[in-house]
């Protein structure tokens, strides 16, 4: 076989006839490619998959972790320690840097592996003719020239030119945004200048077949497909740093200024006193170790990794750890409708039959359910409607709810089952004599059958279509008791019924029939001519029902101060009805109206707009951009390729697990269950993670301030030769004491009112003025208590050798840190409320470790501590208890002030969300 097929992706295949296309691709429409030819093409074209953005190597991720400012400061401390001979200090600090880098790198790689594993699980299978035989294999193995067989329910595996088709329709919303299935046929188009959505003889990768069968020849694979071209454009949208990244960078800068200013001051004082360079550098290292929160990167990485695991368990996969926290700052959600807020299972809800109303219950594609009516009315004979439901459709629904074909037709099959009719058996019993396939040009479908009607066999025409179209072709209508009335007598009633269902967000299909006894030959020859003088039978209202948890999830989001908006391809009226049922909020607008508004007008109108219908991909991107400019942290959900750019633009792009590969690459999080409720769960988790990080930083900064003040005062007033604690004492505190209060903070359950607070302002850094004052106040408290205990302890403070005052300071600092961790785990709530027993068990460990550090010989030699008497231990405990008592009293005062009624000048809406910190 020749190997001269073209490789450029821009060939106008739709303007060439099928034989020319097959020839140009050097294929055979009956035998397909040979195995050898397919292997050769795969080597040249590569696998049929969308290439993701190049993932950074392990070393690149590790280097990025090392560049973190906190780690760079620790590296500087380690280097200076080596210079002055403090090798144990240098080793411990270096080990901490390595731990930070390894842990961060490992967690990033795990997150990426989760996404890759998800992608591999969703590789579709295809049926292909190779060497004249039908084979099935992974879609990634396809090459240009392959002959692929499609049927209803299939996902199109690559771009291709149709060779044959039978009543084929494809759902191309993933590519073009068109919500209704598009009819397809192999007929050659007259011109090459045809928009993508109008190329009716082409099918495109990752769209789906909703009706009919077809064969196609693959024209493009991988990055040459239409979806591949969209994927290649995504790099134009630059991802932004997460709120946590920005805040930690800000905090690190603040800590750097404090640390190095204090170090400089101590060094200057040492030089003025005439101390040796080694002594001065030792003081500087002690100060540096005290002022740098060595556990911050490790803790944040551990918390985010913990959050990522919790998210994965909740059916959400995040790509980057910082995205876990970004979720907690979310203040606005732009949600897709289908499959996210709804079940993506079309369901008949309302029935208007023979001018009477009936209600249909049951969920999704389950065939269990009832049809109820007004008490006192006779049970109607639904036979004629049931014929239309089964025979005027092609979809099939298994008893387990698996659908092949158009989802709307699947709803009709389920409705037929609820009236006691089996669709496959009915189709088998009453085959079609003739048909008018559905076409978007005339918007109806007609089939002709020999049916059992009123005890005898009749030749009947069944018609299904849009209510307006069907009514226009009717002359009469059935009334109760199967009485037939002229259409004009009931037209107003039928129109009102259609309007009632449409206003409820239902998609309405009308059914009609006509008896044609003895006209079989004429109907078979020209079926279209008989679609007139029909008798109207009834209407069915169909909806994609809301997920049971969606309404509660929206309510929770509103309670949490999060604006939820629905963005859909549905008509604005239909979308508005669904939005009202969800309780989204006021205002609905269609795409054309949206496009006519300026950015300024749209920004001003957004508070009163919560439903957007008939939107384009550009509209979605524009909405996200305007909301971000207004200060919102935007989460956006989507599953279609046309959502990809907006997902990448959003602060949190949330892709659906059932969506396109391009969308999953663009998003920062993937919901494997396509559930809006999972997104709200993720936001709750993100908030909890942020609260814990804030609690940790509050605790850590308070201790750091106490250490900085302790070293500064010791240096300025030459207490204990300017060395309040040795560097190893400080590192011992960081490694073996504060680790346990941090664990208490990490394992503390989330506050009950976590989702009753407004979203935090992402522009308000962690190191804001209010928080900074609180950290400093708590730090001054711990410093004052430690200094007082040190000064009042018996013994000589004129040397840096082991002494009771220095040991006392070490013990009070340890016990104070332990108790501070217990009470600072929550704010402004009391830290002494339940659950507390588990926290006390954890905190008993550092208490024992502190005793060992003071009383065991080799630790005394290493840390320069000395044994204390029983009275001295009690004194240390007494000093330490001052810290939790003062902190709890201060929080109680704040709670009382916060619960007081607002003054006229201070409304609840104006309360700073950081106040509760």
Any guess at the CATH architecture of the largest domain? Up-down Bundle
Distance between the first and last residues' Cα: 73 Å
On the 0-100 scale, what is the average pLDDT? 83
CATH topology of the largest domain: Calcium-transporting ATPase, transmembrane domain
**Ranges with pLDDT <50 over ≥5 residues?**
1-9, 235-239, 903-917
The tally of structural domains comes to: 4
Question: How many beta strands in the DSSP annotation?
Answer: 27
- CATH class identity of the largest domain: Mainly Alpha
State the secondary-structure class.
alpha+beta
Largest beta-sheet characterization = 10 strands, mixed
Estimated helix fraction: 40-55%
Quick one: overall form?
elongated
Question: What is the H level of CATH, i.e. the homologous superfamily of the largest domain?
Answer: Calcium-transporting ATPase, transmembrane domain
How many DSSP helices? 32
Range of strand content? 15-25%
**Could you tell me the radius of gyration in angstroms?**
36 Å
Descriptive account of the structure:
With 917 residues, the chain is an alpha+beta fold. The chain has four domains: 24-228, Calcium-transporting ATPase, cytoplasmic transduction domain A (Distorted Sandwich); 247-311 and 682-898, Calcium-transporting ATPase, transmembrane domain; 324-342 and 547-674, Rossmann fold (3-Layer(aba) Sandwich), CATH 3.40.50.1000; 347-543, Calcium-transporting ATPase, cytoplasmic domain N, CATH 3.40.1110.10. Helix content is 48%, strand content 16%. The protein has 32 helices and 27 strands. The strands form four sheets. Strands 10, 11, 12, 15, 16, 17, 18, 19, 20 and 21 form a ten-stranded mixed beta sheet that branches. The chain has an eight-stranded mixed beta sheet with strand order 8-27-26-25-9-22-24-23, with helices on both faces. Strands 1, 2, 3, 4, 5, 6 and 7 form a seven-stranded antiparallel beta sheet that branches. Strand 10 (347-353) and strand 11 (356-360) form a beta hairpin. The protein is elongated. The relative contact order is 0.09. It is a multi-pass membrane protein.
């Amino acid at each position: 076989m020749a190997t001269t097929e073209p490789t450029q992706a821009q060939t106008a295949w739709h303007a060439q006839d099928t034989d020319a296309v097959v020839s140009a691709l050097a294929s055979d429409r009956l035998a397909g490619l040979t195995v050898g030819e397919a292997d050769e093409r795969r080597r040249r074209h590569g696998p049929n998959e969308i290439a993701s953005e190049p993932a950074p190597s392990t070393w690149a991720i590790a280097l990025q972790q090392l560049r973190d400012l906190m780690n760079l400061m620790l590296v500087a401390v380690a280097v200076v320690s080596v210079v002055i001979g403090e090798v144990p200090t240098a080793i411990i600090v270096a080990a901490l840097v390595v731990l930070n880098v390894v842990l961060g790198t490992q967690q990033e790689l795990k997150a990426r592996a989760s996404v890759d594993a998800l992608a591999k699980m969703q590789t579709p299978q295809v049926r292909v003719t190779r060497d004249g035989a039908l084979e099935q294999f992974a879609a990634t193995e396809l090459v240009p020239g392959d002959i692929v067989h499609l049927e209803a329910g299939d996902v199109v595996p690559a771009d291709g030119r149709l060779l044959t088709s039978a009543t084929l329709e494809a759902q191309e919303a993933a590519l073009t945004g068109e919500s209704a299935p598009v009819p397809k046929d192999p007929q050659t188009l007259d011109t090459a200048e045809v928009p993508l959505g109008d190329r009716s003889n082409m099918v495109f990768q990752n769209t789906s077949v909703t009706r009919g069968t077809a064969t196609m020849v693959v024209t493009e694979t991988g990055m040459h497909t239409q979806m591949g071209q969209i994927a290649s454009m995504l790099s134009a949208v630059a991802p932004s740093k997460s709120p946590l990244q920005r805040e930690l960078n800000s905090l690190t800068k603040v800590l750097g200024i404090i640390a190095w200013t204090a170090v400089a001051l101590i060094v200057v004082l040492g030089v003025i006193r005439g101390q040796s360079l080694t002594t001065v550098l030792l003081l500087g290292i002690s100060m540096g170790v005290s002022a740098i929160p060595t556990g911050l990167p490790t803790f944040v990485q551990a918390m985010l990794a913990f959050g990522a695991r919790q998210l994965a368990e909740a059916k959400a996969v995040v790509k980057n750890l910082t995205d876990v926290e970004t979720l907690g700052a979310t203040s606005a959600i732009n949600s897709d409708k289908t499959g996210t807020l709804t079940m993506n299972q079309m369901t008949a809800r309302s029935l208007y039959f023979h001018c009477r109303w009936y209600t249909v219950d049951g969920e999704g594609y389950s065939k269990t359910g009832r049809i109820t009516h007004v008490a006192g009315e006779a049970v109607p004979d639904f036979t004629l409607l049931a014929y239309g439901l089964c025979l005027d459709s092609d979809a099939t629904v298994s008893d387990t709810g698996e659908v092949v074909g158009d989802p709307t037709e699947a709803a009709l099959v389920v409705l037929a089952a609820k009236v006691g009719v089996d669709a496959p058996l009915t189709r088998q019993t009453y085959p079609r004599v003739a048909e008018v396939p559905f076409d978007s040009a005339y918007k109806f479908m007609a089939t002709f059958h020999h049916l059992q009607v009123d005890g005898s066999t009749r030749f009947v025409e069944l018609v299904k279509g849009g209510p307006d179209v069907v009514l226009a072709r009717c002359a009469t209508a059935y009334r109760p008791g199967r009485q037939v009335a002229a259409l004009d007598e009931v037209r107003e009633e039928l129109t009102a019924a259609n309007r009632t269902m449409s206003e409820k967000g239902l998609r309405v299909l009308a059914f009609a029939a006509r008896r044609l006894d003895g006209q079989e030959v004429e109907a078979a020859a020209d079926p279209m001519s008989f679609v007139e003088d029909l008798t109207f039978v009834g209407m069915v209202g169909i909806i994609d029902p809301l997920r049971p948890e969606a309404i509660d999830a929206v309510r929770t989001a509103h309670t949490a101060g999060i604006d939820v908006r629905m963005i859909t391809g549905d008509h604005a009226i239909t979308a508005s009805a669904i939005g009202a049922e969800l309780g989204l909020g006021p205002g609905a607008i269609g795409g054309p109206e949206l496009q006519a508004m300026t950015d300024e007008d749209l920004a001003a109108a957004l508070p009163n707009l919560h439903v957007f219908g008939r939107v384009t991909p550009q509209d979605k991107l524009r909405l996200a951009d305007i909301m971000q400019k207004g200060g919102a942290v935007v989460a956006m959900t989507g599953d279609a390729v046309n959502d990809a750019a907006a997902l990448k633009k959003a602060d949190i792009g949330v892709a659906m697990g059932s969506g396109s590969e391009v969308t999953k690459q663009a998003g920062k999080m993937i919901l494997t269950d396509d559930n809006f409720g999972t997104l709200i769960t993720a936001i709750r988790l993100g908030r909890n993670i942020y609260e814990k990080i804030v609690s940790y930083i509050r605790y850590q900064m308070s201790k750091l301030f106490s250490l900085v003040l302790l070293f500064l005062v010791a240096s300025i007033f030459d207490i204990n030769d300017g060395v309040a604690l040795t560097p190893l004492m400080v590192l011992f505190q960081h490694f073996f004491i504060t680790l346990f209060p941090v664990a208490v903070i990490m394992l503390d359950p989330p506050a009950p009112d976590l989702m009753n607070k407004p979203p935090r302002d992402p522009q308000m850094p962690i190191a804001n003025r209010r928080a900074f004052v609180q950290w400093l106040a708590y730090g001054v408290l711990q410093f004052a208590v430690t200094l007082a205990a040190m000064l009042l302890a018996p013994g000589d403070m004129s040397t840096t050798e082991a002494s009771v005052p220095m040991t006392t300071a070490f013990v009070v600092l340890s016990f104070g840190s332990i108790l501070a961790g217990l009470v600072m785990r929550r704010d402004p709530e009391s830290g002494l409320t339940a659950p507390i027993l588990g926290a006390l068990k954890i905190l008993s460990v550092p208490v024992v470790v502190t005793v060992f550090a003071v009383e065991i010989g080799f630790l005394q030699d290493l840390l320069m501590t000395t044994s204390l008497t029983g009275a001295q231990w009690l004194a240390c405990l007494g000093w330490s208890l001052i810290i939790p008592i003062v902190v709890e009293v201060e929080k109680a005062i704040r709670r009382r002030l916060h619960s007081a009624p607002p003054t006229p000048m201070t409304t609840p809406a104006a309360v700073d969300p950081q106040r509760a910190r």
